[in-house]
Amino acid sequence: MEGELYIELINGSMIWAKSGDNPDNLRGEGLDGVILDECAMLKPEVWNEVVRPALSDKQGWALFISTPKGKNWFYELFLRGLDKGQSKWASFQYRTHENPIVTQDEIDEMKRSMPEIKYRQEVLAEFLDAGGEVFRGLDQVLTAIPSDPVSGRNYVAGVDLGRHEDFTVIKVGDVISCEEAYIERFNRADWDYIKERIRDVCKKYNRATIMLDSTGYGDPIYEDLAKEGLPVMGINLNVSSKPAIIENLQLMIENRSLRLINDQQTVLEFGAYTYEVLLSGHVRYNAPKGFHDDCVIATALMAYGMSVGGVTTIGVMEEDEIQPEYHYDEIEDVIGWADDEEE
Question: Around 144, how many Cα atoms within 13 Å sit in the side-chain half-sphere?
Fold first, then answer.
């Protein structure tokens, strides 16, 4: 057919070469496999609405090749391949240095003559910050080292709860230095074990103030821990409160006033985290479908605790002096939101 580019093999198989400029022109019969070249510059519907459905009936394969172009839909696919929980995906990243045809002299010349951003993107194959991502400059704050508690220091723990598919994440940081000291992440545990781990970490880190996501099933966990006399603060993450918590973390990262441990799962979740503007004008922050955000939420709660000084009236009190109900009401007034509006 005139205008069609294809190769017909002697076994009857066909290899077609088509442009992705117009997704509708790619519609047709089922595919055994597809290679999308420079797919970072294709519209996401090429994959989501056309190619992926065409592969489904034959359970076909797909290979995505591209120079990074910001953190767009291709970046999201790349992150899937780094996530050990998504076994059907695999990601590979190669710099120009690994091309045997390109000489080191040529690479050095490109580094001298190209803008740094272009060099990092085109030669080092880095996914650079684009306009839509939530957290910028994360790589600049991944300098903290896990550490044991120091006597007399005030610590705060951010806790996001999960039981089966989601994870419980406990992150602890030093209130004064705003430096993360501890990470724990686990799932498939009963509530008694989850409370035990929160309790043990809190006591280990000088009775750290616990900033707990009390949304949904987190509310009875908060109540149980508070009844035990632990310095716990329940935060209902709803459409009003969640943006404030996330945006506080954004600001602390951009200002480099927070230091985080270079944890692979945390970096993965931060890179995938996204937002959308609702018709009401509120901003909804969440993880894309198939990704977790437990590390993001735990970090945000920890950072918020740091920003309000770890609620030191609780954190430094002795065990027999704790009055959870009184101090929770006091904190609630400071926060200014404890309503039950769901996200």
Answer: 24
